[in-house]
Amino acid sequence: MESFDFEIEREFNPLVHVEKKLGFYDQGDVSIACWEPGQVSPNHCHPDAVEIYFCYEGGGIMRTENEELKVKKGCFVVHPKGELHEFTTGQERTILFRVRYGNSMTSRTKDWPTNPTWQATDQDREYFST
Predict the structure, then answer these.
(1) pTM for the complete prediction?
(2) Is 9 strand, coil or helix?
(3) Which of 1, 41, 83, 103 lies 20 to 30 A from 68 at CA?
(4) What is the CB neighbour count within 10 angstroms for residue 12?
(5) What's the CA gap between 108 and 36, in Å, rounded?
C-alpha cells in the first residue's frame, strides 16, 4: 500500500503545467498534474491506455474532438483508449490526479498551439496521418 499527500506533492511552474509521476502499478501509473491559471495541455491521446482525471482543486475545460466539458473540483473524466483530448485550466491553480492503465502509457500528440517550441515527433506525425 502507498499513500500520497497532494499538499506535499504539489509543484507549479509558471511556464508549463507539471506532471509528477507518483507510482507505477502492473499495467498503469498514477500522477499529479499541477496547473497555473490559463495553462493548456497538448492535444493528445493514449492509443493503448485509458486515462482518468480527478479534479482535486481548481478546474477548467476538457475538450475532445466532439465535446467540451467543464471540469470542477470533485469531478472526474474518463478518456477511453485513443480519445484525443486537451485540458485548459481556469482562473485558479488546478490540481488533477491522473490514473492511466493499459498495454502502454505512450502518448501521441496531435498539436500544441499554445506552446510555440513544441515539435511533433516522427511517431506523432505517422500516428495522426492515418
Answers:
(1) 0.91
(2) helix
(3) 103
(4) 13
(5) 23
